[in-house]
Structures are given as structure tokens and as C-alpha cells.
Design brief:
alpha+beta, 6-stranded mixed barrel, two-stranded antiparallel sheet, 15 strands, 44% strand
């Protein structure tokens, strides 16, 4: 009978652990449940994590622009903005590299360049002065913030058409912008 009582005790302990696990699933996602089990006692402890509230890209950009004292305008394939003598996004991403390396850029169903490191554009902002571009992109599953402030090196034909241009986007570390959700 001693083995039977032990089995009954183990089943009771397993049932209690299942109840605690089920209770943990119904808690808010910010809470973690830690269970400590000893042969004779059971104790459950709830720890609430404190996390920094995430902000949208638009909110982060608004705060960033205020800090810099500059106006940034959101751009998209439908709303082109001027960066020096290039239109963003079309011409910028046609000629851009990332840290000097060839890259390909995709924004919804549009693709610029092929080969190189792939970047999926999520958001893009151009300063009203036309001298800074900030790109919120994904590379694989990671978010990447890219920036360009240097003037592009553009070669034009005698008729004024762009023959080539060099634009180098670089990773940009900014705590305010990197905490945005994208």
C-alpha cells in the first residue's frame, strides 16, 4: 500500500501543478508564474515584469523631430519626397547601398535592385530640408534603423537625366527611434 499512496501523492502533485500552469495561462501576458515544489509543500509566486511601453513609429518620429528641431515627412511609394536631387523612395532605393554593401529593397509589392542583403521597408521619413532620410526596415526578423545624411554622388546626362548615383545608408542607433514598434 505504501507504493499506492506514493502514486496517489504524485498524481495529486501533478494535478496541482496543472492547475497552477492553467492559472498562469489566464494571467496577463506581462506576468510570469514561478512554482517551487518540495516533497511536502507547494508555493506559488507571481512576478510582474515592468516593461517600457512601446510607441508607434509615428510617435517616435514626432518626438525625434521635436528633439532635433526639424520637420520629418513620411513618404511612401505613393507620396514621393525629395532628398537632395533624388526622389524618395524610388530613386533613393534604386541607388542605395547599406554600409557600402549591395542591398535589395522591397516595399509592399515594389522591389528596387536585386541581390545583396535584402531589406523590407516598413516606414520611411525625409526631413523637410531634404538632407536626411530615416528608414525603418526589417532584415530577416530583425528591425533595422537606417539613416543617410550625406549628399548623394549623382551623375547626370547632358539632358539632366540621372545616369547613376551613390547613396550609402548606415545603421543608426537612436534609443527613441529603436523603441518604436515596427
Amino acid at each position: 500500500m505504501i507504493g499506492g499512496e506514493r502514486m496517489k501523492g504524485r498524481r495529486l502533485l501533478a494535478s496541482a501543478l496543472c492547475v497552477l500552469a492553467l492559472a498562469a495561462c489566464t494571467k496577463r501576458s506581462q506576468e510570469a508564474v514561478t512554482t517551487t515544489v518540495t516533497p511536502t509543500t507547494m508555493q506559488a509566486t507571481t512576478v510582474v515584469e515592468t516593461t517600457v511601453a512601446s510607441v508607434t513609429v509615428a510617435e517616435a518620429m514626432e518626438e525625434y523631430a521635436r528633439q532635433k528641431g526639424e520637420v520629418f515627412e513620411r513618404t511612401s511609394p505613393a507620396t514621393q519626397r525629395k532628398y537632395y536631387d533624388l526622389m524618395v523612395p524610388d530613386q533613393l532605393f534604386e541607388y542605395a547601398t547599406v554600409s557600402g554593401q549591395q542591398a535589395s529593397f522591397r516595399w509592399d509589392n515594389l522591389t528596387w535592385q536585386s541581390g545583396g542583403v535584402p531589406y523590407e521597408i516598413v516606414e520611411c521619413y525625409v526631413s523637410k530640408s531634404g538632407k536626411t532620410v530615416l528608414v525603418f526596415a526589417k532584415n530577416g526578423h530583425s528591425g533595422v534603423l537606417l539613416m543617410v545624411t550625406e549628399a548623394p554622388q549623382t551623375v547626370r546626362s547632358s539632358s539632366g537625366e540621372i545616369q547613376s548615383s551613390k547613396v550609402n545608408l548606415v545603421p543608426y542607433q537612436n534609443e527613441r527611434l529603436l523603441r518604436a514598434t515596427w
